[in-house]
């Protein structure tokens, strides 16, 4: 048993009257001890539940991110004219609405904007469709690449994907606890604003519950992250909703700049595309990449327009939407997917040859 960890557990688990928040340094210590298995299973399980009930603070999230920075992987800086966009998306996937972020990443990369994504397989508690399976359905298998190979792909294509199962195996124990506990611990909140890129980054994070936005802001300010966008997105993702006004916060000092975007104002119907089978989704995405009209194409235009504007490639939403339509209809985005698929496949084959 770790006496150090027991004291940290006592702070977060003592209830409303005597419990205390952890300092940033204490949160970093607790996170490292969990990742490295230096606390007992009983201590770790108790801590995760107690911390969930208490709710994390921005300072605690900052400490957890410090630990991830120390122990986790990072893609190294590439030659880029703008900050690399890092998309923070819930690791336990999607169950209700069709994800569009892989298409968004392809649109951005096709326009010259580098993008980093991160995640893993089907994870608890939701066990929804993860990004890794969407990419595999599109012919891009990130799971076979080492971190140096992923770096090379990123440098060539402007798209990178940190696959946590291989690139950050220390997190495996967290998922095992999460499965056994049946609840999302605060790590699930922190992952949304984790930045596995060592250069100048623009963090994009989705959220569901409004208090999360304040925690994000506090954590990022403590870590001196000044370039971020927070979105009340579909199922907590970075995907802009179409069934309601998108509530967005843009980093600004000292306060967030609030932005409200209504799909109706830009000529889009106000409904989200439901998620069917994975095969159906892949077919829908392939139609989008061919420039065919359809509901998911509308979602791609809506999101592509926003992100091309937010990256600085386009001057406003309307020009971003027009640019997205152009990139889809002239085959540029489809060509980017083909390039990415071929380069990842070539890297994977090199791996197999050396086994």
Topology:
Layout: H1 3-12, H2 15-18, H3 24-35, H4 41-54, H5 58-71, E1 84-88, H6 101-110, E2 115-119, H7 131-137, H8 147-157, E3 159-163, H9 164-167, H10 172-181, H11 187-191, E4 201-206, H12 210-222, E5 228-231, E6 246-250, E7 257-261, H13 278-289, H14 295-310, H15 317-329, H16 332-353
Parallel strand pairs: 1-2, 1-4, 2-3, 4-5
Antiparallel strand pairs: 5-6, 6-7
Helix pairs in contact: 1-4, 3-5, 5-12, 6-14, 6-16, 8-16, 14-15
Task: Supply database-style keywords.
alpha/beta; Pyrimidine Nucleoside Phosphorylase, Chain A, domain 2; anthranilate phosphoribosyltransferase activity; 7-stranded mixed beta sheet; transferase; Anthranilate phosphoribosyltransferase; Anthranilate_Pribosyl_Tfrase; 355 residues; 10% strand
Between the first and last Cα atoms, what is the distance in angstroms?
A: 40 Å
- In the CATH classification, which architecture of the largest domain applies? 3-Layer(aba) Sandwich
Give the helix proportion (percent range): 40-55%
CATH superfamily of the largest domain: Nucleoside phosphorylase/phosphoribosyltransferase catalytic domain
Q: What's the helix-strand series?
A: HHHHHEHEHHEHHHEHEEEHHHH
The count of domains is: 2
GO molecular function: anthranilate phosphoribosyltransferase activity
Domain Glycosyl transferase family: 97-332
Keywords: Amino-acid biosynthesis, Aromatic amino acid biosynthesis, Glycosyltransferase, Transferase
Domain Glycosyl transferase family 3 N-terminal: 6-70
């Amino acid at each position: 048993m770790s006496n150090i960890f027991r004291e940290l557990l006592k702070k977060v688990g003592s209830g409303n009257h005597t419990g205390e928040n952890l300092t940033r340094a204490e949160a970093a210590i607790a996170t490292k001890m969990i990742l490295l298995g230096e606390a007992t299973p009983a201590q770790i399980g108790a801590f995760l539940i107690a911390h969930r009930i208490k709710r994390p603070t921005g300072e605690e999230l900052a400490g957890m991110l410090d630990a991830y920075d120390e122990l986790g992987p990072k893609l190294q800086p590439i030659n880029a004219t703008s900050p690399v966009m890092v998309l923070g998306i819930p690791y336990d996937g999607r169950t209700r609405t069709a994800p569009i972020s892989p298409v968004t990443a392809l649109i951005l990369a096709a326009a010259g904007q580098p993008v980093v994504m991160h995640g893993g397989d089907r994870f608890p508690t939701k066990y929804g469709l993860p990004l890794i399976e969407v990419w595999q359905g599109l012919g891009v298998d990130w799971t076979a690449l080492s971190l140096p190979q992923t770096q090379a792909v990123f440098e060539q294509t402007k798209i990178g994907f940190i696959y946590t199962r291989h690139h950050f195996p220390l997190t495996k124990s967290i998922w095992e606890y999460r499965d056994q506990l049946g609840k999302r611990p605060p790590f699930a909140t922190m992952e949304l604003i984790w930045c596995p890129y060592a250069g100048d980054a623009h963090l994009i994070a989705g959220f569901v519950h409004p208090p999360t936005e304040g925690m994000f802001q506090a954590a990022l300010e403590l870590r001196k992250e000044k370039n971020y966008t927070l979105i009340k997105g579909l199922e907590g993702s970075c995907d802009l909703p179409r069934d309601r006004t998108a509530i967005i916060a843009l980093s600004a000092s000292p306060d967030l700049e609030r932005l409200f975007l209504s799909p109706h104002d830009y000529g889009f119907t106000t409904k989200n595309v439901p998620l069917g089978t994975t095969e159906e989704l892949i077919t829908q995405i392939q139609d989008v990449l061919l420039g065919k009209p359809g509901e998911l194409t509308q979602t791609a235009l809506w999101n592509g327009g926003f992100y091309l504007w937010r990256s600085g490639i386009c001057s406003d939403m309307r020009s971003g939407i027009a640019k997205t339509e152009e990139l889809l209809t002239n085959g540029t985005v489809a060509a980017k997917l083909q390039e990415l698929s071929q380069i990842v496949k070539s890297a994977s084959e090199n791996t197999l040859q050396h086994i």
